[in-house]
Amino acid sequence: xxxxxxxxxxxxxxxxxxxxxxxxxxxxxxxxxxxxxxxxxxxxxxxxxxxxxxxxxxxxxxxxxxxxxxxxxxxxxxxxxxxxxxxxxxxxxxxxxxxxxxxxxxxxxxxxxxxxxxxxxxxxxxxxxxxxxxxxxxxxxxxxxxxxxxxxxxxxxxxxxxxxxxxxxxxxxxxxxx
Amino acid sequence: xxxxxxxxxxxxxxxxxxxxxxxxxxxxxxxxxxxxxxxxxxxxxxxxxxxxxxxxxxxxxxxxxxxxxxxxxxxxxxxxxxxxxxxxxxxxxxxxxxxxxxxxxxxxxxxxxxxxxxxxxxxxxxxxxxxxxxxxxxxxxxxxxxxxxxxxxxxxxxxxxxxxxxxxxxxxxxxxxxxxxxxxxxxxxxxxxxxxxx
Lengths: 178, 198
What we know:
- The complex is a heterodimer.
- Chain A is an alpha/beta fold.
- Chain A contains four helices and eight strands.
- Chain A has helices at 39-46, 88-91, 129-143, 148-159, and strands at residues 10-14, 21-22, 37-38, 48-51, 54-57, 63-67, 108-111, 168-171.
- In chain A, the strands form three sheets. In chain A, strands 1-6-7-8 form a four-stranded mixed sheet, with no helix packed on it.
- In chain A, helix 2 links the parallel strand 6 and strand 7 (108-111).
- In chain A, helix 3 (129-143) runs antiparallel to helix 4.
- Chain A is globular.
- In chain B, 36% of the residues are buried.
- The model of chain B has no long low-confidence stretch (mean pLDDT 90).
- Chain B is 24% helix and 31% strand.
- An eight-stranded antiparallel sheet of chain B has the order 1-2-3-4-8-7-6-5, with helices on one face.
- By secondary structure, chain B is of the alpha+beta class.
- Chain B has four helices and eight strands.
- The A-B interface holds A 99-106, 133-141, 143-147, 149-150, 153-158, 174-176, 178 and B 55, 57-62, 64-66, 74-76, 85-88, 93-96, 98-100, 103, 150-156, 163, 167, 172, 175, 177-179, 182, 184, 194, 196, 198.
């Protein structure tokens, strides 16, 4: 599994998601894609996550964006599961701590706190253009030199879509694409 | 004949609205920004030979160019609006130079006999606003700036202290959680390490 390779430091996945799973669509249980992964499984596999009052990061990632529903926790579940020990940032060894000046390498995690309608139910199957434009705009801006949060906020602002929600960012939101 | 003239006019209008993605055409914008930022040691005159990286990035309806001069000074160019929308000094910005060897030398000296003249948070915010104006932006389009100062406080122990690096946010009026302008100020050397806007 390439997730654990030493050179793997950044990850973007466009997939089904939930506060604790990716790859498995909880709303479409009859579908074929039932093989999902739990954040706890990935945390154990990579040997990342909190142990008691300490945080183990054997395979710390630099940047992870899980582009799936509620991968940044959920507003509905906030207070119960919101970045609990099983949270996605922990699974990738990304701490929600303050900033780079602690001597560690900067890390950031992005996910959504809401469900993202990539496609509507059949027969409509309408692609969510705001989501597509956000992803395109965000990566374009970030790669062109804006800092992480600035690129995200600007991409969000470009949409002029009041129904679209911003992603949730954990870690160093001033990170550059490099 | 009228149709032909109209066609020519339409083509001319299209051409005049074309995105500026040619490096030679972008360099004058880079020069102007480097002068506004008063960058020490910046090559003069600036030629394409000084450019170590040039990329045009398209997506989300945007056309942005990234120009890096001498592996150090990075400029983001908005090719639709024809302006420099971000800048990073890759040698000094804390986003890149975040290691102990980069930051510990910036800490206030332990001896009180050494002069250490660093801006305050308020001065850093004013400093950022001054340079945004020099760059041609209008800080009054945003809410009052908020400056945060970085701290060196390694988990493994050792020296701690406030770093002379300030992050100055100019919040948007319509969305105060996001910044219309974002500026990183080096309050010790009195320079802009990074800025970005829309």
